[in-house]
Amino acid sequence: MKRLVIGVLTATLLTGCSGDEQPSAAIPATTTPATTAPAAVAPELREVVDRFVKTINAGDAQGVGAMFAEAARFDSVGRIYSGRAEIMDRFLVPEVIEAGGRYTLLDLAPNGDRVVARYDFTTGSGGEERFTYDCAVAGGAFTDCVGRYVS
Fold this sequence. Notes:
The chain is α+β, with helices and mostly antiparallel strands. It contains 4 helices and 6 strands.
């Protein structure tokens, strides 16, 4: 038995050190590169989105308004609001701020020079929605946003 173990061990060592390196069938000779991680959102875009969530959740209409460029456009599920005043007066103030709405940011993704934020939204009366805002940002302000419901 001792001779058998020594023989197997010797054969194994000689085969492994013979200099004839062959790729093992169990280990491929080449490896596939790891998949690329999703692109990160630029820090300045992340900061604008974080500031928007904090400001709107605080009910600060003036602060939220300042986050939109004067000539901004907002498409909320096909309802188009043109200009900061209209976005605030016809959409965000009555439908979010006065409704006691709260945004919970779920995730962010880049979309070219835009940022897509996915939110859970609740109203003061318990209504719940999930949607995305796909927004262009310039100079720290939203210039164009497209809001869509998602599941």
